[in-house]
Design brief:
2 helices; 7 strands; alpha+beta; three-stranded antiparallel beta sheet
Length: 123
């Protein structure tokens, strides 16, 4: 019986190590979109979360702009302002990010659509 429990724990531990190694070679981004209604139609407020990593490929490239926009600082001092999720998802896709999960959630009483994206890290 002890041998079976030991083998079971070895199996669980090895699965955990494999999973940790596969996610350790990726970086993640969460794009949050809050939709609201105006007289001109449906509008979105964007926010992006890259975490606290100092080596993230997007570190220092995004700033929150006015009225829920996101500003992207391209090399050469060019700034792109995003006011919808399609354009920013296209930019992230071109940089190697892929959507791995989408979900609707509530933060401080507001509904948000969350896009979780990842990309492999080049070593």
């Amino acid at each position: 019986m002890k041998k079976r429990i030991f083998i079971f724990f070895i199996f669980i531990f090895s699965a955990f190590v494999i999973n940790a190694q596969s996610s350790a070679n990726k970086e993640f981004v969460i794009l949050r979109v809050n939709y609201f209604s105006k007289q001109t139609g449906l509008e979105a407020r964007l926010s992006i979360d890259i975490g606290t990593s100092q080596t993230h490929s997007l570190k220092g490239k995004f700033e929150e702009g006015k009225n829920g926009t996101l500003r992207y600082n391209e090399p050469g001092d060019k700034i792109i302002v995003f006011n919808n999720e399609i354009d920013i998802l296209e930019l992230l896709y071109k940089q190697g990010f892929e959507i791995i999960y989408c979900y609707d959630g509530v933060i401080t009483g507001k509904n948000y659509m969350h896009y979780l994206l990842s990309k492999p890290v080049k070593e």
